[in-house]
Amino acid sequence: AQSVTQPDIHITVSEGASLELRCNYSYGATPYLFWYVQSPGQGLQLLLKYFSGDTLVQGIKGFEAEFKRSQSSFNLRKPSVHWSDAAEYFCAVGAEGAQKLVFGQGTRLTINP
Amino acid sequence: NAGVTQTPKFQVLKTGQSMTLQCAQDMNHNSMYWYRQDPGMGLRLIYYSASEGTTDKGEVPNGYNVSRLNKREFSLRLESAAPSQTSVYFCATHWTGANNSPLHFGNGTRLTVT
Predict the structure, then answer these.
(1) Could you tell me which residues of chain A have a Cβ less than 8 Å from any Cβ in chain B?
(2) What confidence score (pLDDT) does residue B68 get?
(3) In chain A, which residues have their Cβ closer than 8 Å to the Cβ of B48?
(4) Is A14 helix (H, G, I), strand (E, B) or coil?
(5) What pLDDT, on a 0 to 100 scale, did the predictor assign at position A98?
(6) pLDDT tens digits for A13-41?
(7) Percent of chain B scoring above 90 in pLDDT
């Protein structure tokens, strides 16, 4: 069965600093991978997704993620964070698309001014 | 605007009470899902419906029932609420026409069981 681990429960970075959120997955076949963001009191919004092709994928709000099969990782990055990026971020893995996605525990991002 | 609508937004129940969480979508998506979100646990799938007329258990179905009333609506029922069901519940939809299409989420229902 697939599983997802986000090792960092909470990360704090300064505004303007770079960001990397870690995600490791376990899945026997080629995974479908997603990053979602959740602002307080809101549902989850898709940031980006990977299913095949170029291993570096671009998403909304200036985020990108890199799929590394050898490391079973799909880390999320942003070169320079903004105060509005403060939110909770979820990595998810699915088989053949989004059906029955498995989510990681989430990483809460705090931005220092 | 197209989207996923959940009602109510907030609910407080006493142990043993019942209630139904409603979800409606106007995205014409085939699949619908109910997740619960708990601190440190991420989102866990309760039930899903791959298409109208079908429902299947997810990871944590105990204590819940669902009804796929039609293509638009997918409700989640708690017959006898327990404090362990205190959580934030999210409905999501998915278009199965493409394997890589994402889930679309509602804004959640925050349920407290005392």
Answers:
(1) 4, 6, 9, 32, 34, 36, 41-46, 49, 51, 90, 96-101, 103-106
(2) 96
(3) 99-100
(4) strand
(5) 52
(6) 999 999 999 999 998 777 889 999 999 88
(7) 77
Residues in chain A: 113
Q: A19: exposed, middle or buried (C-beta count within 10 Å: 0-12, 13-18, 19+)?
A: middle
* CB atoms closer than 10 angstroms to residue A36: 25
Model pLDDT, residue A77: 98
Is-contact A56 A68, C-beta < 8 A? no
- Phi/psi at A46 (5° precision): -70, 130
CA dihedral A55, A42, B104, B56 (to 10 degrees): 110
With contact defined as beta carbons under 8 Å apart, do B106 and A43 qualify? yes
Of the candidates A43, A90, A96, the beta carbon closest to that of B99 is on A96
Chain B, residues 21-40, CB within 8 A of chain A, namely 31, 35, 40
Both tokens of A38, joined, read 């959740």
- What is d(CA B8, CA B6) in angstroms, rounded to the nearest whole number? 6
Length of chain B in residues, anyone?
A: 114
Please say whether the beta carbons of B47 and B57 come within 8 A.
yes
Interface test with A, best of B43, B59, B107 (most A CBs within 10 A): B43
* Other Cβ atoms within 10 Å of B53 Cβ, number: 9
Write out chain B residues lying below 8 Å of A23, CB-based.
none
- The answer to whether A2 and A93 have CB atoms below 8 angstroms apart is yes
Nearest-Cα residue of chain B relative to residue A7:
B40
